[in-house]
Amino acid sequence: MEERENLIRILSESRQAIKDHDLVKLKELSNQTVHSASIASDTDSILVAVIIYSLGKIIERTTEYGSKECGSICKFSITELQKAESALNKNDEATFKESLESIMVFVGKSSPDLKKDVQDILRKASVNKAAKIYEHGISMEQTAKLLGISMYELASYAGQKGSANVPLAKTQSVKDRVNLAMEMFK
Amino acid sequence: MKDKAIIFDSGSLISLSMAGLFDELVGLKKIFKGKFLITKEIKGEIIDKPMNIKKFELEAIRLKELLDVGILEMPSSLKIDDKEITRRTYEILQIANTTFKGRDRDIHLIDLGESSGLALSQILTEQGMTNVLAVDERTTRMLCEKPENLRKLMEGKLHTSIIAKKENYKYFENFQFIRSTELMYVAYKKGLVESKDPKLLDALLYALKFKGAAISDEEISEIKRMG
Fold this sequence. Notes:
The structure holds two protein chains of two kinds.
Chain A: H1 2-19, H2 23-40, H3 43-62, H4 71-89, H5 93-110, H6 112-135, H7 140-147, H8 151-159, H9 174-184
Helix pairs in contact in A: 1-2, 1-3, 1-4, 2-3, 2-6, 3-5, 3-6, 4-5, 5-6, 6-7, 6-8
Chain B: E1 4-8, H1 10-18, H2 22-31, E2 35-37, H3 40-48, H4 57-68, H5 82-96, E3 100-102, E4 105-106, H6 112-126, E5 130-134, H7 138-145, H8 147-158, E6 162-164, E7 177-178, H9 180-189, H10 200-210, H11 217-226
Helix pairs in contact in B: 2-9, 3-6, 5-6, 7-8, 9-10
């Protein structure tokens, strides 16, 4: 229930962020869904996170720097996000998913140059969201499974994010762990 | 029966694979008086699934070769029944994934591969075999070594209260962990890495960190000070 209300708010604010051409806000909204995804393994939150993040990247690529005009992709996205929001309000899971997925289909159709990139953008968005969920304390395997990505992709991306530099992540002294390894090879 | 085993999690083998350190792993196996083990669930993650992903097919083939030549072995090589591992795997999953609650929901922390490694370790310990888990990802390690740290980390990141079923903590107390970084430190100390470059240790540890080994810059500095 709480997750659904949160998603409705995020979809609504995302529409406004697209209208305002506020890409920073879109990224921030995408990250907000990560909390629900981590706690509840909530696939709806994950789908919203990936689509909103990808949309930000696509708008960034398709509009000229400084331009406030986003064109047909933005218009279509705003309409579909509205549909997804209404569907969530009615507990209509199928329409909710269809609306979100139709955004990426439209992007592929509307720009031949982007068509080949859409899968790549979605993939990278999934890896990015997975790394966020892993940072939140969910294991690497569980996170990779949630996002439908391979552990190879997640490991190398997460390795560059510095999540191990958090002091709480140090759970044993370096000396003890090294000694344990050395002891095994005696 | 050989009296020692290192149980590899997916992450540690992925780090070693992507950092190109299989020769060193083979070198370590030659001097190890025991077995390098993986479970069938871990094999699924590092060999079977990526075998169908073009981007990681080569890594999967190389890991399969390590299994084919006996550098890595399955628990059946110790006559351990897969059914028993599976039974315990699900028991561990159930306990691990009901240890923390947020917003009134159990948090699904770990998955099959990770818990199968713990299950195998538990069985070997009961049989009196010295064993450690080589795990590069931090969640499983934190759950076993400092579960309160994991609770605090999640609470901070998720901005919500995380309630722990503390009676579960003791279930995870008796596992021992190393990472791919400690393994490569051993390889370095034993002269198994072919380079005389003074920055070699630094390079090895950072290569593994950037491929997914959860080790902090501070911990790397400490290892380097040990020389």
